[in-house]
Specification:
With 273 residues, the protein is mainly α. It folds into three domains: 109 residues, no CATH class; 71 residues, no CATH class; 77 residues. Helix content is 80%, strand content 0%. Helix 3 packs across helix 6 and helix 5 crosses helix 6.
Length: 273
């Protein structure tokens, strides 16, 4: 009898859990619920965007105030101590996201969250699956890129965040700076090939254009060199011809002079008959 009661209790519990789950699914499938959750997500992402953008203008001043604080200690911050547009919480959270996490690429996280919220609100946006893959790649790549570029400038390290700085330094140690450049360039090339349809034709045309331009420039230089040599040769021949013509003209003038002078020499001479 006791065994039967236990079985009935388990069945009742399972039935109750099943009904609760069905209610949750029904609520989740409700259009109003989708719209409310989507609107909340959009507003949260806008709030995140505002505090991250504010960090560019107020982060340096706020870091000394909230950089060492925990979340539970934010109540001790006075009103005028921070300048972030979203108050002490905005200054604290933006410092963590920008300096200790992924830097400016975190804006992509807010952008993707915004797209997801609009999709839940049944606003027509691009596919979230593809957008998630693209955003995740750029999220990591931009962080490493800025961490690599601004490694020697402490005042700009926040652009890549701690993640970008440490990953780029690890790559520099393992494969060197040229290797890091190759990894960044090749990974971005692969991303562009999959993300943008005309990437391969564009690269081919660019390479052909550059090669043809170089060939044309080389041919132009050779042609100019040959033309210059020909012009110099023609000029030398012209000068030589001119000198020969001048010499011949001088000789002719001399002969004419002597011919014209002979009668003058014989003037006044009386021949005897």
């Amino acid at each position: 009898m006791a065994q039967k009661k236990k079985t009935n209790n388990k069945a009742n519990i399972l039935q109750s859990l099943k009904e609760q789950w069905n209610n949750i699914v029904h609520i989740a499938q409700n259009e109003k619920a989708y719209f409310i959750v989507g609107a909340l997500l959009v507003l949260l992402m806008l709030y995140l965007c505002i505090l991250l953008i504010s960090f560019f203008f107020t982060g340096a001043a706020d870091q000394s105030v909230v950089g060492h604080l925990r979340f539970t200690e934010l109540g001790s911050v006075a009103k005028g101590d921070v300048h972030n547009w979203n108050g002490a919480f905005g200054a604290w959270l933006s410092n963590i996201i920008m300096n200790k996490w992924f830097g400016v690429s975190s804006l992509l996280l807010a952008f993707y969250g915004l797209m997801a919220g609009l999709r839940l609100m049944r606003v027509r946006v691009s596919k979230l699956g593809k957008g998630f893959v693209y955003s995740a790649f750029l999220f990591i790549w931009i962080s490493i890129f800025f961490g690599f570029i601004f490694a020697g400038q402490p005042q700009l390290l926040f652009l890549g965040g701690a993640h970008g700085y440490h990953i780029s330094q690890w790559l520099n140690v393992k494969i060197g700076i040229p290797g890091t450049v190759i990894v960044l360039f090749f990974s971005m090339l692969v991303f562009l090939i999959f993300a943008i349809q005309n990437t391969i034709p564009f690269i081919r045309k660019s390479l052909q254009f550059n090669l043809s331009d170089k060939a044309k420039a080389q041919a132009r230089k050779v042609k100019e060199f040959i033309t210059d040599e020909k012009d110099e040769k023609d000029e030398d021949e012209f000068i030589e011809t001119e000198s020969i013509s001048d010499e011949n003209e001088n000789n002719n003038l001399s002969e004419d002079y002597f011919i014209n002078e002979e009668p003058a020499e014989n003037e006044g001479v009386i021949y005897a008959e």
